[in-house]
Amino acid sequence: MLPRTKHLAKITVLTSAMLIFLGNTRTLKCGEQQMQKSSQPTSALKLIISTNKEKYSTHDPVVLNVSITNEGDSRTYIDRRMYWGYGGGLMLEIADKDGKQIPSKMRDDAIMPPPLRNDPVPLVPLDEGHFYGITRILAVNDIFHAPGKYAIRVTYKSWLQPEDLSPVLRKLSVVWAEHSRVESEPVWIEIHP
After folding, report:
1. Which residues contact 125 (CB under 8 A, 6 or more apart)?
2. DSSP β-bridge partners for residue 96
3. Residue 188: beta bridge partners?
4. pLDDT score at 39
5. pLDDT score for 106
6. DSSP string, 135-157
7. Measured between alpha carbons, how far is residue 154 from residues 65, 77, 85, 157, 189 in Å?
8. CA distance linking residue 80 with residue 46, whole number of Å
9. Helices in the chain by DSSP H: which ranges?
10. CA nearest to 104, candidates 133, 82, 89, 84
11. Terminal CA-CA length for the chain
């Protein structure tokens, strides 16, 4: 290859690389703008709960699985930390067959502190169809006071504030404290003596 042809080939490769990079930068900026316009990222989220079985004796533990699923078509970020209680982000509600709320012997009252400033991963990205969750073991004797049918429901509420995160992360489509709650459908279980 002639020296001039080599030089032109290098310029062509560099120019192509720059155009690809600039195109990707524009795509990223476009994506950021779309994420910023999304005022309610919780609308694409669904809280799904399940138990390990439908019927329990008074000595069985209830294994409750809770997951937040992104049913939208764009990435949404949620707080990585999930604790039980109003201040912790996950609220457990149990009602009998008549809809009467059953108070728990133990109170869930975790208070979510702000994330650590040096936390490298304060958020979980939820792409379309992805989920993030937690499992909780419920002692039947501690929660269900008598045999019967009970509805279990869980509500997710973010307490994350924009000032809790770095300016770069604030630009993402994050579920903030100002956004609405995400409530699960009830799961029915039956307790036998």
Report:
1. 75, 76, 77
2. 150
3. 151
4. 57
5. 67
6. EEEEEHHHH--SSEEEEEEEEE-
7. 10, 20, 10, 10, 14
8. 16
9. 3-37, 140-143, 167-170
10. 84
11. 88
Structure confidence at residue 121 (pLDDT): 86
Any idea of the CA torsion for 141, 143, 149, 151, to the nearest 10 degrees? -150
Give residue 59's identity as a one-letter amino acid code.
H
What is the CB neighbour count within 10 angstroms for residue 101?
9
Residue with tokens 């937690």: 134
Give how far Cα 28 sits from Cα of 14, 23, 31, 109, 193, Å: 21, 9, 5, 40, 58
Instruction: Output the CATH code of domain 40-192.
Output: 2.60.40.2970
3-state helix, strand, coil in the chain (%, to 5): 25, 35, 35
Residues lower than pLDDT 70 in the chain: 1-39, 105-107, 118
Looking at the whole model, is its pTM more than 0.85?
Answer: no
Return the pLDDT at 108: 74
147: Cβ contacts below 8 Å, ≥ 6 apart: 58, 191, 192, 193
The SS3 call for residue 70 is strand
